[in-house]
Amino acid sequence: MMKGGDFERLIGKARRFAALSVSFKPLDAVRAALGAEKYEASTAAILLAKLQADCVTSEPGFWVMRPSPREKTLLATDRSVALEGLSTPLPQDEASVFLRDTYLGDSGPIRELLNRLVANPFDAHEQLGKLLATFSQLGRATELYNRIPELRSALNRADGVVQSDSRLATGFFGHKELREELADWIDNPPRERMARAFYISGLPGVGKSFLMAKVVQEARARKNPVVLTLDFDRRGLNLLDTDSLTLELARQVSDELPQHAPRLSELRVELSKEASGRYRRSGSLELPTGFAEAMRVAVQESGRPVLLVLDTLEVLRGYGETHPARLFSYIDQFIRSEIGPMSIIAAGRGDALAPVDPFRIGETRLLTGLEDATSAQLLTGLNVPFGRIQDIVDRARGNPLLLRLGAKLALDSESLTLDWQAGDRPELAGAYLYRAILSRIEDDGVRNVANFGLVMRQVDADAIREVIAPGVQMQLRAGQAEALLTDLRTNHWLVVDEAQSGWVRHRSDMRQAMLPMIYEDAPTQAAEINRRAVKFFEGRVPELQLYHRLQLIRSGDPLVNVSPQLARSFDDAMIEELPAIAADAVRLARGQRSFTGLSQTLSRNVSDRQPIAPGQQPPDRTMVRDLELLLEQGDLTEADRLYEALFTEMNDLKSPAGAVALCHRWMSGQWSSASKQFKQLTELGYRLEGEGHSSLYRLVVLEMRAEFGFQELAREMSLDGQLLLNAQSTYGEAQGRRLNDGPLAFAMLAADGSRYTSNDRRDRIGAAATGLDDASLTEFARSDMLALRERYGIETLPHTQAHDYAAVLNPYSRPVGTLFALKRSPRMLDYLNGIMTNFDQVMDSAFNIGESGGPKARLLSDPTQGIDYLAAVGATADWLGAFSFFHSTAHVPMLARRAERWRKAAAGSWTFGGRPPNKWRDQSEELDRGMYQWFEKAVGHQEAVQEAARQFLFWAFAGRWSPDAGWLSAEAYFPEIGERAQARIFRAMSQGKQAGFGLGRLNGHLGCLREMQRIGVARSIAVPLTILAMDAGDGYTPDDEFMTAFKIVAGPEVRSRLY
């Protein structure tokens, strides 16, 4: 019997044989291991079984070793003896020989070959594929393993160019002047630091995409730009998840510049699994700093310009009126990151870019149809006699459908005796031609199937027999259905024959033009066909069964429920064929705006909005669901447009319209308005389930209760386990919509804190748990904090503590960022610009971040992203509290107070009333650790008073005042700072000084600081004012320009009564 050591030696040989081969015969591997040794049949069987676990079948009788065991085997093999001890010759096929040469040979020549191929991949497609396959098989067993991303990118680029060239190889005709205009636009990128496009508009089928492909081909030959394409007809590209756009563009940059593929590939993996998504605003247009820098370096090192192609923009606009403009704002970031010269060409149907600022559209051209030469070529391809081609070209005016119908009519008749012209209504000419062609079909059966078959999206012999024929009361003979299908297949002007599937489909442009005519002219027959099609497709094609059921709404059937799964199977053409109410239902189920909702917001200018009069009907169910859907998706920009048009007067929470309006006010940061309805909520008993309210409404009600009635909610959840479970479920399902780790998380923690100390539950509580004395939960918060900071290239210093992690994850950056993005307060815009520009003045003294933490140039141009950047620093409560101390802007003071309350609680100082959870860090402390850390640093400064004055002035004037500016009053920068802010300064300093009086220096300072915290002064203001109140009085007047300026700003009452 074979010993264990002998068996391991034999299986090792067999695995080595397999690893050094690409495709091999299993018995050859066994023979290579056993050689001339005598063995039992069972030994060979066990060897085969062991080896089979590491292999897959490539073709009958051959195996291929999987990459992971191959890599493991070869890494454990001494290359100098890799070929020794094998009793059977290794396979000599080309792939296996190349694999062994790559593994065993000198990597230098292969590296040189790789460099040449990557530099010019277009004529080496086969060699690239061979290298990629070999490197992938060897894995880390080859020294060139790290070149795999580069190699794959080069191959992708070659594939893309070859496919495009092949598509264009049939020849491109016409549009010479337009192509020259586009070439000039591409070769001379706009100099403005904002995205501008050359827009091509036109109907379907007129050659927009073909034209764009040709222009790109010519640009490659002329300038060799880095070509990037965003085609919004592709599922997954949208403005609600800009990371998906970033990942796609990074992939394309890798393909265009393969030498940078490894770094970009690493970033793509990091972004895909990034944990910081919990703390980002949905719909944020933020571009991660790492990506911006990597793509800038890649493009600049290449020395090539960038050509960005935007296609099928009508699909993007279908998601909402604000989406096209937001796309351009997103592209702006690439331009501002100094990626290099960028030209943009765009295409779409109709006025897809109408919502965009006209300045964004550098040039616009409308393709009204095919040019005459292209039309003539099309007709020639349809075998139209030469003598009739020009007549049809003249009549069709480039309309592809009319060209095809005119060709069919010309082939069916001896002369074009019918008088038709495209005119201003080409659809009428199309209907006229279609009827004329049908009238020439002598066989009633063929005519009926050709015409009424349009009602069905696909037809086979069974469909003719069971649906169309009985639907139009047509009797069929045995075998006639098959004969009719055969005849239908020959009508290429009308149908596309899918021979492999057995189905025949009517051409899409024919359906679009003629289907409405059938429903209008023959509603009874169309309804009967739809009714029979419902039964026909049952158990066969569920989405087509649903399609025909929805079409029956035309004949009075009720609207049926549309599942999201089936709705996603509908393409845009299917939806456009449905009645309006059915189309809306499918779009809503797919997560898109309803057509009705889009038309409502299009038809009403917000500035012209009139309040809904008493007795006037509120928004209907479709409008309510539209707004609800937008909120669920986090598309708050588009939601606000609909809200302003139809929902501003909806305040009755007993109605669906009032409930969803409240949700919008809350989620958009309009908290002052929302809080006024809290009393109405209490009167309704916080009704969560009744009257068909959605999970979104339940979430908002719970969050409002946690904000405005925390102790009552926490007490109820601690006594009612089902309420707690329901809250946890609602909160858990709301990822991306909820106020992450806000007071609702604290309330659940207070109700049952023990449930959140285990790692598997931390996502329910997140950063709210940093106040707990639990090292594992603190580490989770640290991980989230680091991930968020990495997006902005912010360095975290080693001594950063738990309260610093929490400050970074403050959830109130989300509602205030949304509020600013929607309302664009000029005062806040001015303040944010100053803070971002001058942030280095407080970066070192107040926040634990390294030198790399200064705002990037592209962030300085976008204050909305500045809010997200300040959040990543940990400054949300500080800048927001400082701004609201000096300025009164709707909703901001409430958000500032809540942000500061959250900061203190997450830092360990319980601020929600009642008993804190078990293991809370600072149950008896009055100052939180974050506040105390700032105070320690401030009071220990060598020139504490002067530094306090400097920091106060920074937060007062957003860093824009300096001694060089001269002795300016408060009104010099912000007129509103005046008496109101001076009264606040005096109150805080006088009450604080009184609270610290007689307690000694340190305790006096702490007493003053506690009083300022009690009356709601944010940390950024309270700490410097404490120093200024306690140390700058009593005749001490430091000879310092900052202190002098502070006294001027603070006002006469502070100067006369405190100094």
Provide a descriptive summary of the structure in words.
This protein is mainly alpha-helical and 1059 residues long. The chain has 8 domains: 4-105, Orthogonal Bundle (Arc Repressor Mutant, subunit A); 109-158, no CATH class; 171-367, P-loop containing nucleotide triphosphate hydrolases (Rossmann fold, 3-Layer(aba) Sandwich), CATH 3.40.50; 372-438, no CATH class; 442-551, Winged helix-like DNA-binding domain superfamily/Winged helix DNA-binding domain (Arc Repressor Mutant, subunit A); 593-609 and 618-732, no CATH class; 739-925, no CATH class; 939-1059, no CATH class. The chain has 54 helices and 9 strands. It has a 5-stranded parallel sheet. Strands 1-2 form a two-stranded antiparallel ribbon. The protein has a two-stranded antiparallel sheet with strand order 8-9. A hairpin with a 2-residue loop joins strand 1 (55-59) and strand 2 (62-65). The chain is globular and about 110 Å long. It starts with a helix and ends with a helix. 47% of the residues are buried. The model is unreliable at 603-615 (pLDDT under 50).
Domains (count): 8
Helix percent reads: 55-70%
Shape: globular
Rg estimate, integer Å: 35 Å
